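Message: Study each token:
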Amino acid sequence: MAMTSATSSRNRYRTGIALSPTQLCAVDVRLRSSADRAWRVELEPPPTDAAAWPSLAAALRELAGKLGEQRGTLDISLMPPFTEVRRLALPPVSRDELQRVLTRGASRYFVGARGPQVVGASPTTRRRRGESLPVVAAAASVRLIDAIRSAAESAGFTIATVAPAETAWASAAFALWPAFARQSAFVILCQEERTHVLELDGKRLVGVRRFRDGSSDAQLIADTVTPGARVGIAGESRARHELAAALNIHAVNASVANGEWSAASERPELLAAHFAGGDAGPTLRAESDVAIERAGGRRLAWYLAGAAAALLLLSAGIELWGVKRQLANVRAERERLRPEIASSLVGRSTVDATYRELAALNAVERTAPHWSSVLVTLSESVPEDAFLTAIRAREDSLIIDGMAPHAKKVFDAMASTSGLLDVKASAPVRRETQDDGVSLEHFAIAARVEPARRLARPATAPAANIPSGGRPRGTRQ
């Protein structure tokens, strides 16, 4: 609200103005000459055929002098009959499209519209797809708005908002009767010329109706009020008391304001000045205002897009820095561990090589013949009347030379020896006469020793064929 508003973006106070054809009422905390912080001045009605309002310009310059403000900000409430406020049902469109529809068809929607109009609208409910959009719309003459702006600029003021007095009164109702913000309610504003009935719902102005002053239309007002709804009444004392008494007859109990706003509630123009700039109802928006808002919206969108891009780049840079820092830490840790790992790898290589050599040795041991057992087995397998003259071994191959009366017995004994494979003659058997005249057969037998296995004695082998002296029995000295 204008009277209690904090400083604006430039640290300036905002002054509330209630403007009628014959009076200006200003409210500002710096107006300390009166108890209600208000200042009033009589005006000459604005010329109907001019875009200037000299008396208003003079009044605003005087106000600037009283405020000691060279560049102030104003919130203006236009008192009736400057504006026409109506409830309309329009197609479901966006806010900008709604503004264009009302501006182009002002004479269609507003009875008193003559010439170009500045319009504004506020929805009464949430828009639903495919349904008409109920709005409270207001209109005022473009010529009047231009004259007000020109007068304000000449006095060094900037106009923040221009709205009908009904918007300010609706905002005031929630301060006068706080319970109205929680349910549907009706507010009756009594003036000397007319009576205004405002319908409120959900902290919004949802309907406006005008009646004659006093109790002339008490029955119509009682029919307008929804049964069971809360009703508040404010305005001129005489008209208010007269209407309240008439409404009691029709079972409508209208409550008056109490507390800090009770004095202001008796003067509709003072109430409109105090709560100028409220958002409970429509605000008048000229085409230039719409263009400025669009430009501001685009600038804000570009600013937000730029800020988002900057934040994205910043976050990417921070992420990249973090990754590089982690990589640097990993590299440093790897360099620290490299000597330990190198020594461990050297030790592991040595162990692996040792294991490979041991494996090779184990394989050799497993596959190599056990020649001691081979010799013992051969000596035991050879018949008693045979003797060996030579034994030659290479890897797993074995060649045996010897003499025997019958070489076939030796062959049979060798073939039946477990652990000998591929037993065969490596040379023809020759019969030779010895020095003592005995004829013996000279044989050469080749065989292959089975890997990793000891030669077992044949089941039919004779008794041990190796004497205690260590030489196989039957071998020639």
